[in-house]
Design goal:
heterodimer; A: 776 residues; alpha/beta; Rossmann fold; five-stranded antiparallel β-sheet; 12 strands; elongated; B: 356 residues; Purple Acid Phosphatase, chain A, domain 2; 2 domains; six-stranded mixed β-sheet; 7 helices
């Protein structure tokens, strides 16, 4: 890489400073010229400026002294082309970086704002040690191997770029490792997971303790169950004793009841024995008794019938006999009389009808034969007509209306007269007719009256005949002859029947009495057979028999009752009275039940608690899964941490190996440069840490033990050998800020010659403030 | 007569499949469902008995909820006898439990025998430190009956609290030794007469319990006993290997994973073990692959077991730090996995790749 042109806008004391660079560019200026500032500017173009928090305070140091844009441009040439770097440093707006292609003037992204690292592969710190040699640093003090130098060394040897990532690789591994476990203090996935594991273990222990406690409760529950069982057994025994005592009492009560039945049976037996006295000769059968009852009943009924029939029938017969003591009317006679009565009734009705007709008929008034028309009427009409005539005649002559009125009167009078005459004639004709009718009606009426009288005479005659007939037999007609005759007929007939009946009855009575006698005999035999008193009624016998039978049944019943009770209750011997007081046993049983209930309640509480604990411990399986997972994670994380540590160890070792391998190149280069510069073959060594040792007078001494002149020589050679080992074709420039101040004349000349030689393949920007040290 | 043989149900156990807490909770619930399904199967098949050869629960102290669930399930099938042997995880789980159902039969530290109809005897014993040698001599069985023994432990030829000495059980008249302890189906011979059988667990809980899970159905007929494995797991746990060597793009790596999962149902809990070697700088897209596929399976994860493809010969002439670093690690670190991880870490750091 080469610098082509530098333009400082404002940087420290430099303002609008321009420099065209060659392969060996010398800047000769007095002290305070700004040479160091220029070197710093070049570095700032490549690496930027650290912010004000940086300890070096470079930004503040190189802020423009006299205003202007803080920054500038630098044209460079690399293997990729020619570019212009432009940087501005602004605390208010922030720093800016632009890279443009010199050929086109267009922006380029070939390099980023970390152009220095990208070009040289070393960081800013290492840049100071390699490409820039300040005057004050021409010692070995600050010349230590940095990671960046070491990385670059190795990368440059094989031309690959992965070494450029070494630091970041180690950082990445360490970051990964820190996530797993911090190097100091607490934190990291391993610790966090272990903490989680501890919590999980604690939860598991708590669950297991709960299960243990639940198991203990279950044991207590089981013991309580046993105790409850014992108490149940005690209660059972007490109950059995109580039952026993109660049963004993029941048995004794049963015996009492049984004794009662036995006593009842004995009473019944006694009564039966007494009842049997009435049947010493035997007990009549039901059939015999029924037969005796029938006989008795029939006898009584028959006797009663005898009495009733004789009373009732005799009185009626006697009464009828008195009525018909003069003879009984024959049927023929009665029939004729009844016919008469019917005739009589018919005639009565006829006479009634005739009377009714006569009553309703009214003989009309004798009619007048004259005309009804009044004579005066005709005269009036004639008068009217005349008047009308007169009036009309006068009227027509004098007054017309009056004449009209008279005409009307005339006409009216004439009309009425004509009408009246006609009417008179008609009326006279009608009157004549009426008179003729009247005479006919009258004749008829008179005939009817005659008939009625004749009829009434017949009626009276018939009535008298019938009344007389009825009276003969003590009957009265009242109004209804027919009915009376009917009654008479019925009575006559009845009398006949009664007489016949009386005869029959008498005969029957005789037969009945015979029968009664027979039945009485049978009944008496019955009584004698069984030794009953003649006066003893069959119903009494029956009653006694029934009582006897009842007593027998009752006795059977009592015996059966007693036996079945005995069987049912399985009564044996009467047990002796017990000395166990059931009441005391009840009290003891009650106490035991209370104890049982208390234990059951305790058991229930314990069961509830045990269930609750076990339910709370249900998460145990899930916790164990979590524990397993956490344990696996801890193991995995620990393994990964160990892998990270091993990887870092091996990487660092590899780096060391490489570094030490490439140290040879650097050592050879250093020796060559050193000898070239000093003209001596000194035994000098440099280690991987850039520690230089010189062999002198039999011993090895560290270079920083020598004079500053020698240190300057060594420092120069170290830098050059570093560049030789670090860079291949893409060699950077060197900025030497008056590095040879401490060299003596000979070494100074050798150094100048070395620089001229070096400038053939390395761009050198040489800053000095004294002509004696000018290279050109 | 049908009998169901199961074991190692581990109700309420923790899952070891890296599922989210919600999915892990679901799986624990599925364990209980699996037990319920087994009981329903037994009922439908007309089984007379269910033998649970140990580790019904995951630990000795189980929650009341889980204990009640089992008791209620057993009580709901009064026609089926449940023979429960406790294993190395769940001893004492029914201790202090009141009113166990009548059809729940337990064993103890001495042989307990139950005679079933059709000439079948079920006997079992729980191994302890005290009885693990003496119990074999105390077993006496009627050779005329079909004898089913129940134990929990590792089948072998030694004595121990967790060991079932098959040799010591020979010629005892056992037709079928119902074992528990191993979580995969397996059978073997005891003697000329009998066999032993592990039904495996009902549901896989970790990636060491991959594949189909279920129980064994026994059929006793005419004095003979036959058995068959019945797959019943709600979902399987599968771990498949995918060689990532040469797969440098996301699509290629995804394709390798999909090929490895070709026959895996979407209901499965899946883990891909990424193997093979990738060159330095070649990216691993495992996070993206998880993101791509986690919705297609009930559970999906990738375990990175890939190494770095580094041929020392390639770096013999490499004088860079990278070459020096690789040579150093290859020379000094003997453990291959550690070596590959250090190299991968170093190269990722140097080349600016993603830090492992």
């Amino acid at each position: 890489m080469k610098i082509l042109f530098i333009h400082v806008d404002a940087f420290g004391k430099l303002k609008n400073f321009k420099l065209e660079a060659e392969s060996l560019t010398e800047v000769l200026g007095e002290n305070g010229y700004g040479k160091t500032t220029l070197a710093a500017f070049i570095k700032a173009m490549l690496y930027g400026l650290p912010d004000n928090r940086d300890k070096s305070k470079l930004r503040k140091k190189y802020a423009p002294w006299s205003g202007g844009d803080f920054g500038g441009t630098m044209d460079i040439e690399t293997e990729r082309g020619k570019f212009r770097i432009a940087r501005r440093f602004s605390p208010s707006t922030g720093d800016s970086f632009e890279l443009t292609t010199l050929d086109t003037g267009l922006p380029s992204d070939e390099y980023s704002e970390n152009i220095g690292e990208e070009l040289f592969g070393i960081n800013a710190e290492s840049y100071d040690k390699c490409t820039y040699m300040p005057q004050s640093a021409a010692t070995l003090k600050d010349l230590k191997m940095t990671d960046s130098i070491s990385e670059r060394q190795t990368a440059l040897v094989e031309g690959s770029s992965d070494m450029g990532e070494f630091s970041s690789a180690v950082d990445r591994i360490k970051e990964s490792r820190r996530r797993l476990e911090v190097f100091k203090g607490t934190g990291g996935l391993i610790e966090d997971t272990k903490n989680d594991l501890v919590k999980c273990e604690k939860s598991i222990r708590e669950c297991e303790e709960k299960l243990t406690e639940a198991a203990a409760l279950r044991a207590s529950i089981a013991e309580t169950e046993e105790r409850i069982a014992e108490i149940r057994s005690d209660i059972k025994i007490l109950s059995e004793k109580i039952d026993g005592a109660n049963k004993l009492n029941l048995v004794r009560k049963d015996h009492e009841i049984y004794s009662g039945f036995v006593r009842d049976a004995e009473d019944c037996q006694n009564k039966l024995n007494a009842a049997n006295d009435n049947f010493r000769l035997g007990i009549p059968t039901e059939e015999e008794l029924r037969a005796a009852e029938t006989l008795e009943s029939e006898i009584n009924v028959s006797l009663s019938d005898l009495d009733r029939h004789s009373d009732a029938n005799n009185s009626e017969l006697e009464s009828l006999a008195r009525r018909f003591e003069d003879g009984v009317p024959s049927g023929f006679e009665l029939t004729n009389r009844i016919w008469e009565a019917k005739e009589l009734q018919r005639k009565r009705r006829e006479a009634d009808a005739l009377r009714t007709a006569l009553a309703s008929e009214k003989l009309p008034e004798k009619p007048i034969c004259k005309s009804e028309v009044k004579k005066g009427m005709l005269a009036a009409c004639i008068a009217l007509a005349v008047a009308g005539l007169i009036l009309a005649a006068v009227g027509f002559a004098v007054l017309l209306p009056l004449g009209i009125f008279g005409a009307v009167a005339l006409v009216s009078g004439v009309a009425v007269a004509v009408y009246s005459d006609a009417k008179r004639v008609k009326s006279e004709r009608e009157a004549e007719l009426r008179f003729r009718d009247y005479e006919a009606a009258k004749a008829q009426y008179d005939g009817k009256i005659q008939g009625l009288k004749a009829l009434e005479e017949e009626i009276a005659q018939t009535e008298n005949g019938l009344i007389s007939f009825l009276g003969k037999y003590g009957a009265t007609a009242g109004g209804d002859m027919e009915a009376a005759l009917g009654l008479l007929s019925a009575d006559a007939e009845r009398y006949g029947r009664l007489a016949d009946t009386a005869l029959e009855r008498k005969n029957a009575e005789l037969r009945r009495r015979e029968a009664i006698g027979e039945k009485m005999t049978a009944l008496a035999a019955f009584r004698e057979k069984y030794g009953f008193a003649p006066s003893q009624g069959i119903s009494d016998i029956r009653q006694s028999r029934a009582e006897l039978l009842r007593l027998e049944r009752e006795l059977e019943k009592y015996k059966e009752k007693a036996e079945s009770f005995k069987r049912e209750k399985n009564l044996g011997e009467l047990p002796p009275e017990s000395d166990i007081d059931p009441k005391m046993l009840e009290i003891a049983a009650e106490r035991a039940r209370e104890e049982q209930n208390r234990l059951i309640a305790d058991q229930s509480r314990m069961t509830e608690k045990a269930d609750r604990l076990e339910n709370e411990a249900e998460s145990l399986a899930a916790l164990k899964e979590t524990r397993e997972e956490l344990s696996a994670r801890v193991a995995e994380y620990t393994e990964r941490r160990d892998i990270c540590d091993s990887t870092v160890k091996f990487l660092e070792k590899a780096k060391e190996n490489l570094a030490s391998r490439y140290l040879v190149n650097m050592k050879n280069s250093f020796e060559s440069r050193f000898n070239s510069l000093t003209g001596n073959d000194r035994d000098v060594t440099v280690d991987a840490k850039l520690e230089v040792k010189l062999r002198d007078e039999g011993g090895q001494q560290k270079a920083d033990a020598y004079s500053t002149g020698w240190q300057a020589v060594v420092a120069i050679c170290i830098r050059l050998s570093l560049i030789d080992s670090l860079y291949g074709e893409e060699r950077p420039f060197l900025v030497l800020d008056d590095p040879f101040v401490n060299l003596d004349g000979e070494k100074l000349e050798r150094a100048k010659e070395m620089l001229r030689e070096l400038s053939r393949d390395t761009q050198i920007i040489y800053l000095t403030c004294h002509e004696s040290r000018s290279i050109k | 007569m049908k009998i169901i043989h199961t074991s190692d149900i581990h109700l309420d156990a923790a899952m070891q499949t890296g599922l989210s807490p919600e999915r892990a909770k679901e799986r624990r619930s599925e364990l209980m469902t699996a037990f319920l399904r087994l009981a329903e199967y037994a009922d439908k098949a007309g089984a007379s008995a269910v033998i649970i050869a140990g580790d019904l629960f995951d630990r000795g102290r189980v929650t009341a909820k889980v204990r009640r669930f089992v008791i209620d399930t057993v009580r709901g099938l009064p026609d089926i006898e449940f023979y429960v042997l406790f294993g190395n995880h769940d001893a004492g789980c029914f201790e202090f439990t009141d009113s166990l159902p009548e059809n729940l039969k337990l064993f103890g530290s001495e042989w307990v025998k139950y005679d079933l109809p059709e000439g079948v005897t079920v006997c079992g014993v729980e191994l302890t430190g005290e009885n693990c040698e003496s119990l074999y001599g105390e077993l006496e069985l009627d050779p005329e009956r079909v004898n089913i023994a129940v134990m929990h432990g590792a089948a072998g030829r030694t004595f121990g609290e967790d060991a079932v000495n098959i040799k010591a059980l020979a010629e005892k008249g056992i037709d079928y030794l119902a074992l528990g302890h191993y979580h995969s189906y397996d059978t073997g011979k005891i003697d000329r007469r009998g066999i032993y059988c592990y039904p495996g667990c009902l549901e896989g809980r970790g990636f060491d319990e991959c594949g189909d899970k279920g129980f064994v159905e026994l059929d006793v007929e005419n004095g003979k006993i036959t058995h068959r494995f019945v797959k019943s797991s709600i979902r399987t746990v599968e771990e498949r290997r995918a060689d990532m060597t040469g797969a440098v793009t996301f699509a290629e790596q995804l394709c390798r994973v999909r090929d490895a999962l070709a026959d895996v149902p979407s209901s499965s809990v899946v883990r891909i073990r990424a193997e093979g070697k990738l060159r330095p700088g070649e990216e691993k897209f495992f996070d993206q692959i998880v993101h791509e596929l986690e919705g297609e399976y009930y559970g999906f994860s990738v375990k990175d077991r890939t190494g770095v493809l580094v041929d020392r010969a390639d770096y013999e002439g490499d004088i860079s730090l990278k070459g020096e670093f690789i040579r150093l690690v290859t020379e000094k670190v003997k453990d291959e996995e550690e070596r590959e991880r250090i190299i991968a870490c170093g190269l990722a750091a140097l080349l600016g790749g993603e830090m492992p």
